[in-house]
Input
Amino acid sequence: ALFVGGIISLLLFYSSDSIKIELSNKIFCSILLITLATFYFARINNIYRDLPSKNLTYKLDNIVEGASGIYTNKNTFLVLQELDSLKKSNPNLVVVPDFTAYTILHTHESKILTEWPNKTEIPTDKILQKITSKIKNDSTLVFAIPVFQTALLKDGFVPQENSGLNYPIIKFVKEKFHIRNFTNYFEIRRK
Output
């Protein structure tokens, strides 16, 4: 979906010999140019979970490793900045549910045995027990639960539905680990 315009352009380009027989060069080039322009416009204005590129003014340099030169919106920037600070002060930090930035921010393998601890990846109690087997008795872990829906940060700070309890992993963490404090964007829990 992210590269459909590019794929269509490549298909047109590589099949140009057979298409040119039926179309003139001007028509073929026009179709190719329109396809490329449409793809370019779509890509700069429809960015996955972010605002159009002209509104991305916050650099992720020195916040997310490997994101040098990448820009985002103010809300996402502030959340990632706080997450970076939490990571530095809590080396055993685990962020739940499925906050992609956390996977990028930590250099160690997650203690949770899945990359995406969300409702789709953890549909049953049996799977929940399996992925939490390493963490249920680990008193060194610190959990950060976003208090806002991270997928909607570009739109504002929308609170987690049902305090995040719709996610089995959050329900587990809230039952087994105690609240220690709240930051601007996260609820912090540990044993």
In short: Residues 25-45 form the longest helix (21 residues). The chain has seven helices and six strands.
